[in-house]
Amino acid sequence: MADSLDALKQKIQAFVDERDWAQFHTPKNLSMAMMVEAAELLEHFQWDTPAESQTLSSEKREQVSHELADTLVYLLRIAQVLGIDIIDAANKKIALNAEKYPVDKARGSRAKYTKYL
Ligand SMILES: [Mg+2]
Question: How many independent structural domains does the chain possess?
Answer without folding.
Answer: 2
